[in-house]
Automatic annotation (TrEMBL):
PANTHER family: STAGE II SPORULATION PROTEIN E, STAGE II SPORULATION PROTEIN E-RELATED. Gene3D superfamilies: 3.30.450.40, PPM-type phosphatase domain. Residues 324-474 form the GAF domain. This is SpoIIE family protein phosphatase. Keywords: Hydrolase. It comes from Micromonospora humidisoli. Residues 495-700 form the PPM-type phosphatase domain.
Length: 702
C-alpha cells in the first residue's frame, strides 16, 4: 500500500530574490534569467547553500565569483565580470571550461579536496585569488567561491576611503571563510551554537551575539552566547523567542533578531545581534548579517540531520537484537519517539474479536482510559490507520476538528498539536499495527521528514515480521524437539522432577542438546543431560542416536564409569559433544555422577549455598576410550540437584564463570519453591542465550 502525505509548503524566497535584485546588474540578470534549461535548474529550486553563497558573492565589495556544480557554472558579481572584460557580458551561467579554462583544474581541486587555496595573479599587480569550497547541509562540497583582492606591495591603491573599503571587504570575506570553515567542522548542534557565539561578534562588529536553536515541534529553545548556554521557551517575551514563534525578523533599538530557516522555510532558530553604535551603511550590515544567518542555518540543519541519523542508527541497532514481539514493541515505544523528537507514543494492535489493544509507555492514565473501549471500526485516527493502512498526519487540532467533527480529541487535551499515526504493514502489505505520537508545538513535515517517518515505519515492520517468523520457527522447533526428547518425568517415589528444553532463538535451529530420565530397579533414577556440537538436522540426528545408545547401556546395567567408553566403541568418533550421567538413589540418600566435558551439576543442601559437584577430568564425548571417574555425593531429603547444558550459562558478552555465578544467584531465592517454578525461573532469569538449553531439576522429597 502506498503511503499518502500532504505536499510540503514551498519556501518563501521573496527575501532572497529581493537581495539578489539589489546586488547590481549581475543580480538583476540572475533574477530575470530563465535557468530551467541549465544545469542549475529553475531559480525557485536552488538549494539553500547556493542561495547563501550567491548572496555573499553578489554583495561582496570586492570582485567575487561562485562556480557551482560539477560543471562549475559561473555566477559572479559586477566587479568580477568587469575583470573578464568584454567577455564578462556573456559569462554568467556558463561553465568554467568556457569562461576560464586555465583555472578548471585548480577549481576542481578545491571542489574535491575541500580546502582553501590562494593564488597570485600573473599580471604583477599583487592581486590574490582566494578560492574555498561551499558545502551543503550534509557537508558535501557543491561549489567554489572565489574572491579577488589586492594586497600590500601590489599596485598602488586608490586614495581615500576606497583603500579602506577594500581592506574592510577583505577582512569580511576572510571572516566569512573562517565562520564557514568552523561551522563545517562542528559535528553537533551545541558545537554549531558555540561557533556562532564565538566567531560572529568579531565578524559583524557586534557588542553581543546570541543564537537560539529550536527543536522541531518542541517548546524549548537552546540559547548560547559568550556567557554560556541557557534554555528559553518559545512563548517567552524575548526577541529570540519572538523571531522563532512569529517566524519573522524582530527589529531592536540597538540591533536585529533574524530567524534561521532551512531550505523549506522551516525556522531552525534565531540569531540576535546588538551593536553599541550605528553605522552609515546599514544596508551593507544587513547583507552581511543575512550571509551569516544563511551559514548558521545550513550548519544547524546539517547538525539536525546528523543527530537524526545517529538516533535512527541507534533505533535500528536496538531493534536488531529484539527476540519477541513484546521486546520489539518496548523498543519501538522508547526509541522511535527519540529518533523523531516526538512525545506520547502509543501502538495499537488487534486483540480478540474486533477489539484493539493499546500498548504504551508512561502515557497519562486519563489519556489511556479514553482508549479502553477501542475497536477496529472506531473513527479515531489510530484505529483508522490500523483498519485501512493509511498514514494520518494532523498538523494541528483545527485540522483534527475539521476531519473528525464532533469527535473528542484526547491528544489535543493532553497538549499535542501535530499528531501522526503510522500504519505498520506485514509482508503482504496488510496493517498489523498502528504507531501514534505527537509534538506539543505545530511541526511542519516536509519531504525529508516524511522520508524519516517512512524509515521508522519500515524498521518497525521488518522487525515485527522477523520476530513473528522467529516465534513461529521456535514453536515448530520446540514441537519437533519434544518428539525427539520425550521422556517420562514422573520418576520413582521420593523424587520431584522438572525438565525443560528450549531451542536456540536464532533461526530454525533443531539443536543437539538433550535430557533423558531412565527408571531403574530399587527406586533409582538415571539422569542423562548431553550436548552434541552443531545445529540443524545433523546435530539432531547425532543426538537421537547418542540418546538411544546411552539409554540402552544404562538400562542394560553398564556401570557409569563404563558407559562413555562403551559408547565410543559402538559409534566410533564421528561426533563430538559433552554429557553428564547421574544415578540418583533416594532410598540410599546418594547420587553417583559421571561427566565427560560437561558443566558440573549444582547441588543445593538445606541451609547451605549452592556448590558444584566436582568430578575427575575426562575427554569430551566421542573421544573417551578409558573408564571415567565417578563421584558419589550424599543426596538427602530437601536436597536439590540441577543438571544443565552450557547454553544456560554461556553468553558472548560475559565469562563462563560469571554465568555459573549468575545461575547460583538465581537458584538461592527460589530453592524452596516447587521444582516447576524453579525451572521456569531459571529459563526466564538466564534468558538471552544464542544456544539450546536443556535442564533437569531433581529434589529429594523425603
Amino acid at each position: 500500500m502506498t503511503r499518502s502525505a500532504d505536499a510540503p509548503r514551498p519556501p518563501d524566497d521573496s527575501r532572497w530574490r529581493e537581495l539578489l535584485s539589489h546586488a547590481g546588474r549581475a543580480g538583476r540578470r540572475i533574477v530575470g534569467h530563465d535557468w530551467a534549461g541549465t544545469p542549475l535548474g529553475p531559480l525557485a529550486d536552488w538549494p539553500p547553500s547556493l542561495r547563501t553563497a550567491l548572496v555573499v558573492c553578489l554583495h561582496s565589495p570586492t570582485p567575487a565569483a561562485l562556480w557551482w556544480g560539477p560543471e562549475l557554472v559561473l555566477l559572479a558579481n559586477d566587479g568580477y565580470l568587469a575583470l573578464l572584460g568584454p567577455a564578462g557580458t556573456r559569462a554568467l551561467g556558463r561553465p568554467a571550461s568556457a569562461v576560464w579554462p586555465e583555472a578548471v583544474a585548480a577549481l576542481t581541486g578545491v571542489l574535491t579536496a575541500t580546502r582553501v587555496t590562494c593564488r597570485h595573479g600573473d599580471d604583477g599587480t599583487g592581486t590574490v585569488f582566494s578560492s574555498g569550497p561551499v558545502v551543503d547541509a550534509a557537508g558535501h562540497p557543491q561549489g567554489v567561491l572565489t574572491t579577488v583582492a589586492a594586497v600590500p606591495g601590489g599596485a598602488p591603491a586608490p586614495p581615500g576611503d576606497a583603500d579602506g573599503d577594500r581592506r574592510h571587504a577583505l577582512r569580511q570575506a576572510e571572516g566569512l571563510a573562517r565562520l564557514a570553515g568552523a561551522l563545517s567542522a562542528a559535528g553537533s548542534r551545541d558545537a554549531v551554537l558555540d561557533v556562532v557565539g564565538t566567531v560572529t561578534p568579531g565578524l559583524v562588529g557586534a557588542d553581543r551575539v546570541r543564537v537560539a536553536a529550536a527543536t522541531a515541534g518542541a517548546w524549548e529553545l537552546t540559547v548560547t552566547d559568550a556567557a554560556g548556554t541557557v534554555e528559553l521557551l518559545v512563548t517567552d517575551d524575548e526577541p529570540l523567542a519572538r523571531a522563532v514563534r512569529e517566524e519573522t525578523t524582530v527589529p531592536l533599538p540597538d540591533g536585529l533578531c533574524l530567524p534561521l530557516r532551512d531550505g523549506t522555510g522551516t525556522v531552525l532558530g534565531a540569531l540576535e545581534v546588538r551593536w553599541g553604535t550605528l553605522t552609515a551603511d546599514e544596508a551593507a550590515r544587513r547583507i552581511l548579517l543575512d550571509a551569516v544567518a544563511g551559514l548558521c542555518s545550513q550548519a544547524l540543519r546539517r547538525a539536525e540531520l546528523t543527530a537524526s541519523a545517529r538516533a535512527m542508527a541507534e533505533f535500528a541497532a536496538r531493534l536488531s537484537v529484539t527476540r519477541s514481539t513484546g521486546e520489539t514493541i518496548e523498543v519501538i515505544l522508547d526509541a522511535a519517539p527519540m529518533a523523531l523528537g516526538a512525545a506520547l507514543p502509543g501502538l495499537a494492535m488487534r486483540d480478540e474479536g474486533r477489539r484493539v489493544r493499546l500498548w504504551h509507555a508512561e502515557l497519562p492514565s486519563g489519556l489511556v482510559a479514553t482508549f479502553d473501549d477501542l475497536t477496529i471500526d472506531d473513527p479515531r485516527p489510530i484505529a483508522r490507520a490500523l483498519r485501512t493502512g493509511e498514514r494520518i498526519i494532523l498538523r494541528n487540532r483545527a485540522e483534527f476538528a475539521a476531519r473528525h467533527p464532533g469527535l473528542p480529541d484526547p491528544a489535543g487535551e493532553y497538549g499535542m498539536v501535530t499528531t501522526v499515526v503510522l500504519p505498520l504493514l506485514d509482508a503482504s502489505r496488510r496493517p498489523i499495527a498502528a504507531l501514534g505520537f505527537g509534538w506539543p508545538r505545530e511541526r511542519a513535515l516536509h519531504d525529508d521528514d516524511l522520508a524519516l517517518l517512512d524509515t521508522v515505519a519500515d524498521l518497525c515492520e521488518q522487525t515485527l515480521e522477523r520476530v513473528r517468523l522467529a516465534a513461529a520457527e521456535h514453536n515448530l522447533v520446540t514441537r519437533l524437539a519434544g518428539r525427539l526428547r520425550t521422556s517420562a518425568t514422573i520418576g520413582p517415589p521420593g523424587l520431584e522432577l522438572a525438565t525443560r528444553y528450549q531451542p536456540a532463538m536464532s533461526g530454525l535451529h533443531l539443536g543437539g542438546d538433550w535430557y533423558d530420565l531412565v527408571d531403574l530397579d530399587d527406586g533409582r533414577l538415571a539422569v542423562v543431560v548431553g550436548d552434541v556440537v552443531g545445529h540443524q538436522v545433523e546435530a539432531a540426528a547425532d543426538m537421537a542416536q547418542l540418546r538411544t545408545v546411552v539409554n540402552t547401556l544404562i538400562r542394560s546395567g553398564v556401570p557409569l564409569a563404563e558407559v562413555f567408553p562403551r559408547l565410543t566403541g559402538l559409534l566410533g568418533v564421528g561426533f563430538l559433544g559433552t554429557c553428564l550421567a547421574m544415578v540418583v538413589d533416594p532410598v540410599a540418600g546418594q547420587a553417583q555422577v559421571a561427566r565427560v566435558g560437561h558443566p558440573h551439576p549444582v547441588l543445593l543442601r538445606a541451609g547451605r549455598p549452592p556448590e558444584m559437584v566436582w568430578t575427575g577430568h575426562s575427554l569430551p564425548l566421542g573421544l573417551v576410550r578409558d573408564p571415567v571417574p565417578v563421584t558419589t555425593v550424599a543426596f538427602g531429603p530437601g536436597d536439590l540437584l540441577v543438571a544443565y547444558t552450557d547454553g544456560l550459562v554461556e553468553r558472548r558478552d560475559q565469562a563462563y564463570d560469571a554465568g555459573v555465578t549468575a545461575l547460583h544467584e538465581v537458584l538461592v531465592p527460589v530453592r524452596d519453591q516447587p521444582v516447576e517454578v524453579i525451572a521456569d525461573t531459571l529459563l526466564t532469569k538466564l534468558s538471552g542465550s544464542d544456544d539450546d538449553q536443556a535442564l533437569v531439576i531433581i529434589r529429594h522429597a523425603g
